[in-house]
Amino acid sequence: MDKLDLIARNLPYISQGIVTTLLLTVVALTSGFAAGLLLSLVRVYGSNRAAGLAIAYGRAVRGLPLLVIMILFYLFVADLFHLSAFMTAALALGLHSSAYQAEIIRAAIQSVGSGQMIAARSLGMSQLQAVIYVILPQALRLALPSWSNEAAVVLKDSSLAYAIGTAELLRRAEYVSARTYEPLLVFGTCGLIYLMLTFTTNRILGALEAKYRLPDGH
Amino acid sequence: MDSILELQDIHKSYGGTEVLKGVSLSVNKGEVLVLIGPSGTGKSTLLRCINLLTRPDRGTVLLSGTDLTDPKTDLNRMRQRVGMVFQEFNLFNHLNVLNNITLGLTKVKKMAVAEAKQVARLELEKVGLADKADSFPGELSGGQKQRAAIARALAMQPDVILFDEPTSALDPQLIGEVLEVMKELAREGMTMVVVSHEMDFTREVADRVVFLEAGQVIEEGSPAQIFYHARSERTKNFLGKIIGLPA
C-alpha cells in the first residue's frame, strides 16, 4: 500500500498536467480546424495555382514527424516571437493537425454529391452561399467520424510537447518518476489517465455524431 | 405571343467531342416544350446551358430579352427566374423539406423567415406534401422527393421551369404522382421545358415537341405532328423504337 500512497501523494501534481494537455489539445484542434478548413476550400474551389500551394503545404507538413516540427519550432520560432513552451507546442501541434484536417475536410467536401452545388446554384445562390449553406453543413457531418479520430490523435500527440519543456501530463509524470524511482507505477498511471481522456473524448464526439446524423427513415 | 426564352446557335464541346452542334430554340410564355431524343445526344447539356450551369462555347441565351451569355450579366440574379428540377432530385439532405424550400427564399430572395415558411407551406400544399414539411429527404420516397423538389423550384416564382428527366429515376408506380403535379402546372400556364421519355405525358401536355439527335434539332412541331406525321426518317426511327409507332 506504500505504492498506492505514493501515487495518491503525487497525483495532484501529475493531474495538473491534465489541464495543460487538454488546453494544448483544444488550441491545436481549433487552430488546426480553422487553417484546415481554409486549406480544404482552397483545394476544392481555388485556382489551380492556389490549390497547388495548398497541396504542397499539406505534403510538406504531413511528411515531417511531429517531434521534428516541435523541435524546429522550439529552436527557431520560440525565440523569434518570445513564445512560451506551451504556445510553441500548441502552434506546432496546430500546424501539424491543420494538414490532416485539411485532408479530412477536403475528402468530406468532395463526397457531397455534385448535384448539391448544382441545385443550390440553380436557385440563384452564389458559390459562397452554396458552400456555406449547402456544402459545408453536409461535409462537416460526413467528416465527424474521421475528425473524432484526429481529435484523439492530437490528444495523444500533445505528449510530445514534453520534449520542449511544456509542463503537460507526460512531463510531470516523468518528473515524479525521476523523484520516486517508480517508473512503472508512475508511467502506468499516466497511461491510465490518457486512456480515460481519450475514452471520454470519443464518447463525447460519438454523442455529437449521433446528434447530427441525418434521418433516413430507419 | 412573347418569347420568354431564346437559344441561338448553341455549341458545346466536351474534350474533343462536340455535344451540341448549333441548336436554336425559342419558348413562348405559357408554353410546354418537350425535348425528346436518344440518350447522350445533349438534351441535358442543352437544358443546363439555358441557366448557364454549363456555359456554351458559342451561341446566345436570351431570357425575356436579357442575354445570359453576356459576361456582364449577374447570373445569380437571373437564375432566380429559371427553376430547375433534376433527375436525381438534389434535395438538400441536411435540411427538412420545409427548410429546403425556405433556404432559397431567405438567402437569395432575402425574404423574412416567417413569410418564407408561409410561402413554402403553400407550395407544399400544392404538390400534396403538406404533411411532410418536417420530414427529411432521406425519409421520403422518390416520388415525394421529386414533388418536394418541384415545390422548391416553384417557391422562387420563376418565369420558366426546366425539367431534366424528372421521372427517369423513379419506380414506375411513383411516376404518376409527379406527372400529375407537372400536368397541373402546365394547366396553370407555367412555362416549362421538359426533357423526358414519357411519351404519354408528352402527347397529353406538350404544346411543342422537339426531337434532338446527335446534338442537332432534327424536327419540331406539335405532338400530333411529331408522333403521327413526322417528316424525318430519323424521327420516325426513334419513335418506332420508343413507342412502337408505325414508321
Shape of chain A: flat
Stretches with pLDDT under 50, minimum 5 residues of chain B: none
Number of separate helices of chain A: 8
User: How much of the sequence of chain B is in beta strands?
Assistant: 25-35%
Q: Overall pLDDT of chain B, averaged? A: 93
Distance between the termini of chain B: 34 Å
- Class by SSE composition of chain A: mainly alpha
Total domain units of chain A: 1
Radius of gyration of chain A: 21 Å
Multimeric state: heterodimer
Helix proportion of residues of chain B, in percent? 25-40%
Helix content of chain A: over 70%
The tally of helices of chain B reads: 9
The number of distinct β-strands of chain A equals 0
Helix-strand sequence of chain B: EEEHEEHEHHHEHEHEEHH
Low-confidence stretches of chain A: none
**CATH architecture field of chain A:** Orthogonal Bundle
Layout of helices and strands:
The complex is a heterodimer of chains A (218) and B (247).
Chain A: H1 2-45, H2 48-62, H3 66-81, H4 85-111, H5 114-122, H6 127-157, H7 169-180, H8 183-212
Helix pairs in contact in A: 1-2, 1-4, 1-7, 1-8, 2-4, 3-4, 4-6, 5-6, 6-8, 7-8
Chain B: E1 3-14, E2 17-28, E3 32-36, H1 43-50, E4 58-63, E5 66-67, H2 75-79, E6 82-85, H3 97-107, H4 113-126, H5 142-155, E7 160-164, H6 172-187, E8 191-195, H7 199-205, E9 208-213, E10 216-221, H8 223-228, H9 233-243
Parallel strand pairs in B: 3-8, 3-9, 6-7, 7-8
Antiparallel strand pairs in B: 1-2, 1-4, 4-5, 9-10
Helix pairs in contact in B: 3-4, 3-5, 4-5, 5-6
Keywords:
A: 218 residues, mainly alpha, MetI-like fold, 8 helices, 0% strand, B: 247 residues, alpha/beta, globular
What does this structure look like?
Chain A is mainly alpha-helical and 218 residues long. Helices cover 84% and strands 0% of the residues of chain A. Chain A is flat. The termini of chain A are far apart. Helix content of chain B is 37%, strand content 26%. Chain B has helices at 43-50, 75-79, 97-107, 113-126, 142-155, 172-187, 199-205, 223-228, 233-243; strands at residues 3-14, 17-28, 32-36, 58-63, 66-67, 82-85, 160-164, 191-195, 208-213, 216-221. In chain B, helix 6 links the parallel strand 7 (160-164) and strand 8 (191-195). Chain A binds chain B through residues 113, 115-116, 118-126, 129, 133-134, 137-138, 141, 214-217, and chain B through 51, 53, 76-80, 82-84, 86, 88, 90-94, 103-104, 107-109, 135-136, 138-140, 152-153, 156.
